[in-house]
From TrEMBL:
The keyword Zinc applies. Transmembrane segments: none annotated. The keyword Lyase does not apply. Residues 52-89 form the SWIM-type domain. It comes from Eumeta variegata (Bagworm moth). CDD domains: PDDEXK_lambda_exonuclease-like. Keywords: Metal-binding, Zinc, Zinc-finger. Pfam families: YqaJ (PF09588). PANTHER family: EXONUCLEASE, PHAGE-TYPE/RECB, C-TERMINAL DOMAIN-CONTAINING PROTEIN, YQAJ VIRAL RECOMBINASE DOMAIN-CONTAINING PROTEIN. This is SWIM-type domain-containing protein. Signal peptide: none annotated.
Length: 362
């Protein structure tokens, strides 16, 4: 358990006891094994579960962990990883449906008064298990599985897993390299943020011939705690959000973190051009929720964005790094999602793929 950070083990045990761990699968091979599972968020139980991946050695020590939560990028495992590991090591994995049905059962006096023959279970005994559920099977040990041969469906599945594992390893290495590059760039950006000047909003209280009295806008006291909990983020949290939301519209974290902030594309322009009725505009921002439905133009833009980025790199010879949501640390209610960062030129890349171009070509 030394691989886990802080109180992750105790928090993970609470998640396990609360039945937040689900869909856990362990696959063992000659080098150790892989554990995949999902963990329901502790408070926002209706949100998408966190995906947890754990690689273990032959001696069952943890080799590498991965989780889609904010703390999942840490070298030391988060509480969701701990919960999955505790689930695997727990001997009692029965669910409520594995236990005998206990509702609507007759009272003892009724059973004695109206005795019946035998139970349904005695009348129709279940078949014996053909496979020993407590046995350990590996990719290289298919013959140990009773009633299973190399030509069976299970054998074919095991073989396909063996064949595809080298490709998975290459993909994992490429993904880790890409995330590391994005992490380094985002770290530089957030370091620069610490030295930049920020601007604040002021309310005019009174004006006379000699001076103007102003008051700085601040968060209302009744909303301060919620603002600090939901909006404020330190540099490590900002870094995690930026790297995890790199796929932007394909990422749940991108929608979640972006919805509660003022962003360049969806809100900033409307705020800048508005001259009055600001409360009405704020109410619209609060009510407008993305329901997942996309127009044809939006679909076309998403489908062609990666090709446009690749074409730009080939024609310009510049390296473009994809990033996720970038949060203003000193004013965390503001954020932006650039389509790419060109570090060598200290520039941002904004990609536009209008549907009208495709229509005109066709």
């Amino acid at each position: 358990m030394q691989t886990f950070r802080g109180k992750s083990v105790s928090k993970g045990h609470k998640l396990f006891q609360s039945h937040h761990v689900q869909e856990v699968v362990e696959i063992r091979d000659s080098g150790g094994g892989f554990i995949h599972g999902k963990v329901t968020p502790q408070t926002r139980v209706n949100n998408r579960p966190y995906d947890v991946k754990v690689e273990v050695n032959l001696d069952r020590t943890v080799r590498r962990t991965e989780c889609t939560c904010k703390a999942g990028l840490s070298v030391r495992g988060c509480k969701h990883v701990a919960a999955v590991c505790i689930f695997i090591n727990n001997e009692c994995t029965q669910s409520k449906t594995d236990q005998p049905q206990c509702w609507n059962q007759p009272r003892e006096s009724q059973v004695e008064k109206y005795k019946k023959g035998c139970t349904i279970a005695q009348m129709f005994p279940g078949q014996e298990h053909l496979i020993d559920c407590n046995a350990t099977y590996t990719f290289n040990d298919v013959q140990n599985v009773p009633y299973c041969t190399e030509g069976s469906l299970f054998g074919q599945y095991i073989q396909s897993e063996k064949d595809i594992e080298p490709l998975r390893e290459i993909a994992r290495e490429e993904e880790e390299k890409r995330k590391e590059e994005a992490y380094i760039i985002m770290d530089q950006i957030y370091r620069l943020q610490e030295s930049r000047r920020d601007y604040s909003c002021y309310e005019v209280l009174s004006v006379d011939d000699l001076k103007m009295r102003l008051r700085k806008y601040t968060c209302p006291p009744e909303l301060q705690s919620k603002y600090e909990e939901k909006i404020v983020a330190d540099r490590s949290e900002c870094l995690s959000i930026s790297v995890l939301s790199e796929s932007q519209s394909d990422c749940f974290e991108w929608f979640e973190e972006r919805a509660k902030r003022v962003t360049c594309s969806s809100k900033a322009h409307r705020i800048k051009t508005r001259r009055d009725a600001f409360e009405s505009l704020a109410s619209q921002f609060k009510k407008n929720k993305f329901d997942g439905k996309m127009t044809e133009a939006m679909k076309y833009g998403l489908e062609t964005e990666s090709n446009a980025r690749k074409s730009f790199e080939e024609q310009s010879g510049l390296k473009v790094t994809s990033v996720g949501l970038i949060i203003n640390m000193t004013q965390p209610f503001m954020a932006t999602s650039p389509d790419g960062i060109i570090l060598s030129e200290s520039s941002l890349l904004e990609i536009k793929c209008p549907l009208a171009v495709r229509i005109s070509k066709s």
